[in-house]
Amino acid sequence: MDGGFRRRFGGVVNLGNRIIESRSVDRKSCMAIHVRFFASLRERLDVGDQDITASAASTVAEVWQRIVGDTVPPANMLVAVNMEYTDMQAPVRDGDEVAFFPPVTGG
Fold first, then answer.
1. How many structural domains are present in the chain?
2. 95 in a domain, yes or no?
3. Tens place of pLDDT for every residue, the chain, 107 residues?
């Protein structure tokens, strides 16, 4: 602890088929974000629900990249933050839930 106010941590995060080393983060600026993938998107990317931490203000796009790397999001993919549809540039905050849905078709 630094003067009793900050705590640093590090380690390895297991993201299903990926293992990512986390960096030391100042706990005061750390955010917890719950991420969900649905339907064919979940299956195609081979990822399930994830809880991630971010050390600074992030966007949905940064959350996507953090979990699936350089995989390009499908055209017309739907995104929601806290059950409200938004876009990839929307900010995320501590405690938010980010959900990714595959493109929907119908008629």
1. 1
2. yes
3. 333 333 333 444 444 444 444 444 445 568 999 999 999 999 999 999 999 998 776 899 999 999 999 999 998 999 999 999 999 999 999 999 999 999 876 66
Residue 74 domain boundaries: 8-101
Structure tokens at 60: 């949905």
Tokens, residue 18: 């990926």
Contact between 36 and 98 under an 8 Å Cβ cutoff? The reply is yes
Concatenate the DSSP letters of all residues of 12-33 into one string: EEEETTEEEEEEEEEGGG-EEE
- List the CATH number of the domain containing 59: 3.10.20.30
- 2 in a domain, yes or no? no
| Residues forming a β-bridge with 34 | 51, 97
Residues in the chain: 107
For the chain, give me the number of helices (H) and strands (E)?
2, 9
Q: How large is the C-alpha radius of gyration of the chain?
A: 15
- For 44, other C-beta atoms within 10 Å of its C-beta total 12
